[in-house]
Specification:
With 415 residues, the chain is α/β, with parallel strands linked by helices. Helices cover 30% and strands 24% of the residues. 41% of the residues are buried.
């Protein structure tokens, strides 16, 4: 966000306070110019003959965002059959959607097969069942490289104790299953986790995957997952995607040359594409002081943005209403009947009751992880695109809270 003329502006130049006035708080805002910037960065970072970026839509499944990415040429990475259905509704072709579930039933996988998308399987039991039921359907196999990568143990998924993927040590078993059932393996996949800073760790895992890929003679693509870090603080560190792209491209091109044909290089970024585009606005309800702490209590909580409580994630916080105010130390908390601290001991411009507070990096895993805890409504979502603001999800109402409930005793009393 840019500070200009004693106010904050979105990268596209729109005043977020005007949106807060028009649509109310709390409010999610996404700036499409940032998503486009990130999409262009990653597509230009890799110099290979065939490249496909599949947006990991679990980060944010708003249909308008998905439609933008589809229009720019992105594919889609999904983890549930419901995400597959949303992707098809957003305009993605079935062949541009990869379905990578974990611990789901074969019945759900069969639904995805029926929708015509690419199937990615991450355990031997389901691989065997899949081969018996769908002998002619191509499949991708997810390998666990046993690499501890990523900045948070809760979102590092490529290590030996992870529930994700088939252990690289079980490759001989996989090859027996593939050979016996004559499976058509079209892709090999891995995903080591999020917030990767060290390109060396990722490249080490990539080398393991490429060595594995040599065992499958009919591949069409190799999917390296994602996990690229974005900056959470002003001037914060992030994955150097350009440097990483240069290094991996060289190695991948060498592999394709030895393999005998040009394979498709795939990635599935989510947070990298949408995180920095998002801003979450909440209004200060009360400034509460104790002998030890000054609390800023806002009209939101872990029901709308759970990442700080669930992952100890850092979200930069600014006071949009008083950008030039004297700096003071606050702990920003929510209105949920739990300890829901957005940020402790943060230096903010002096906060007054009624001020609008902004939590940055709210484009990924914020609305998508939101809930109706405490029977609170989920907020509206706004997409800023080419200088205009569009309402892309309405704020919920009590009718939404009640919609699927069946008040059985009220029904009995009415008889």
């Amino acid at each position: 966000m840019i500070q200009e003329d004693n106010r904050y502006l979105l990268p596209s130049g729109i005043d977020p306070l005007a949106l807060a006035t028009e649509y109310g708080c709390p409010l999610y805002i996404y700036d499409s110019s940032v998503i486009k910037r990130q999409y262009d960065r990653i597509t230009k970072a890799f110099e290979v003959k065939r490249l496909k970026i599949n947006y990991a839509c679990k980060a944010n499944t708003n249909l308008s965002i998905m439609r933008l990415l589809q229009g720019w040429g992105s594919g889609l990475d999904t983890v549930s059959v419901q995400e597959v259905e949303l992707g098809l509704q957003a305009g993605f072709k079935s062949e541009d959607i990869i379905y990578t579930p974990n611990c789901v039933s074969l019945e759900e996988i069969a639904e995805a097969v029926g929708l015509g998308v690419r199937i990615n399987i991450d355990n031997i039991s389901i691989l065997e069942q899949f081969g018996h039921q769908f002998p002619d359907v191509p499949v991708c196999i997810r390998i666990n490289p046993h690499i501890m990568a990523g900045g948070n143990s809760k979102i590092s998924v490529g290590h030996i104790d992870s529930k994700f993927g088939i252990s690289i040590h079980q490759l001989p078993h996989v090859l027996k299953v593939v050979s016996t059932l004559k499976l058509k393996v079209e892709g090999i996949h891995m995903h080591t986790g999020s917030d990767i800073l060290n390109a060396a760790s990722f490249l080490q895992a990539a080398e393991i995957l490429l060595n594995c890929a040599k065992e499958f003679p009919d591949l069409d693509y190799v999917d390296f997952g994602s996990g690229f870090r974005v900056p959470y603080k002003p001037g914060g560190i992030a994955t150097d995607i350009e440097d990483f792209g240069e290094q991996l491209s060289e190695r991948f091109n060498e592999f394709c040359s030895n393999y005998g044909r040009e394979l498709m290089l795939m990635f599935e970024p989510g947070k990298f594409l949408v995180s920095e585009s998002g801003y979450f606005l909440a209004r200060c309800n009360v400034v509460k002081t104790t002998p030890a702490t000054a609390f800023v209590g806002v009209d939101s909580g872990l029901n709308h943005l759970i990442r700080p409580m669930m992952y100890d994630a850092y979200h930069h916080i600014t006071n949009l209403s008083n950008p030039e105010g004297k700096k003071r130390i606050y702990t920003v908390v929510g209105y949920i009947c739990e300890t829901d601290t957005f940020g402790a001991n943060r230096q903010l411009s002096e906060v007054r009751e009624g001020d609008v507070i902004c939590l940055h990096n709210a484009g990924a895993y914020c609305f998508s992880m939101a809930s109706n805890y405490n029977s609170r409504y989920r907020p509206a979502e706004i997409l800023v695109h080419e200088g205009k603001a569009y309402l892309v999800r309405k704020r919920e109402t009590m009718e939404d809270i009640r919609r699927n409930q069946v008040d059985v005793f009220a029904a009995v009393e009415a008889i």
